[in-house]
Design a protein that fits this description.
The chain is mainly alpha-helical. Helix 3 packs antiparallel against helix 5.
Length: 156
Amino acid sequence: MGKRYFCDYCDRSFQDNLHNRKKHLNGVQHLRAKRVWYDLFRDAAAILQEEQTKKPCRKFLQTGQCDFGSNCRFSHMTEQDLEKLSAQVQGEQRSKELRQEGADVPPGTIEDWLEKRAKRLSAAQSNSTEQEGFKLGWKRSWKRDLPECDGKLLLR
């Protein structure tokens, strides 16, 4: 069968030769999947600027769905989404300015950290008790299933 090439963007594989690889890498499906992947890491300011220049998608606003999805040339963001994005951009700009001035920017309050820690600990404790109960139950049933004999294991 030969070597196979796996495309991480498209999540598919094909026989690896020059013709197939060129055809795939220049294909519309691959280019769209690659763009969607890199859009996940774009800066919020760039996304906001792009979305503000687009007109709203009528079909998306009416039905909540659009046949074009992420390839639509119109904006799928509501006014609330744009406001949240704008607030996020402003917060990032403020923290960037504070870092440039040399001031320490706290990542969050101590209460937030304590709350997250308590949730993590309670989740870890509940998982460990469930796992211990599973292990104990398994050991009990394992010992119960073994036939008693004088040091030799009997196969049934």
